[in-house]
Amino acid sequence: MTNPDPDAVRATFEGIAPRYDLANHLLSGGLDFLWRRRLIREAKASRPSEVLDLATGSGDVALALREALPAEVKVTGLDFCPPMLAEAERKRISVGCSRDSLRFVHGDCLSLDFPDSSFDLVTIAFGLRNLSNRVLGLSEMHRLLRPGGRLLILEFSQPFFILRPFYYLYLRGFLPLFARLVTGDRKAYEYLGSSISGFPDRFGLAEELRQANFGKVNFFSLTGAVVALHLGEKK
Ligand SMILES: C[S@@+](CC[C@H](N)C(=O)[O-])C[C@H]1O[C@@H](n2cnc3c(N)ncnc32)[C@H](O)[C@@H]1O
Description:
The structure is a single chain. By secondary structure, this protein is an alpha/beta fold. The protein has one domain (6-160, 201-234): Rossmann fold. Helices cover 46% and strands 22% of the residues. It binds S-adenosylmethionine. The site of S-adenosylmethionine has 21 residues, from helix 1 and helix 4. S-adenosylmethionine (SAM) binds next to helix 1 and helix 4.
């Protein structure tokens, strides 16, 4: 798989923004709630004071972080797709959360407008796969973290061998068809399928984290490694 083209990625998410959440919940059979909950558990254990959620999209992770972490912890969600951010803002307002405690900002993960060592926790859920340059993205995440700060990556992975034939059949056959019914955009979900099958497995991604200078790299396989949660610490 070639590197994702950022303009095409943005256009894809612009097109599906209003139905992104519904499609997520239906297509994952509700498992996305459990996957994000696992991320939030690790985030809480990190006891951060300032958190950045990259590729925040419609804001579910940022909102869950806001709810789970003490009120004094500052949470920022960042994305480069305005309609996805508009969804996140709509949800922030609907749960009565102030902009001081949770802010959503426009930005690009590959060129982040924050000084070095700004955060002690950086999260990215289902976003890393979409970056056109993963090495640059990981190096930006490393730059923004304070020494001892943690990066948590929740991302699709390559499932255990026994599951692979069924899973790839699901990705290439059922997913685009069903997604068209929910979002009206079959192409977006063909992209999803190919971006998932072209992504490194959990060992490969752990190695990429080490190459990006992260220490204490670890991962957890979720749902037969359909999804993996990776952890890395800035030395
Ligand atoms: C699959 S969604 C994930 C949204 C959310 N994190 C979640 O868990 O549902 C991927 C998001 O990554 C964003 N994205 C992709 N590349 C980006 C980049 N270079 N900078 C900022 N956001 C990016 C897209 O706009 C989209 O909202």
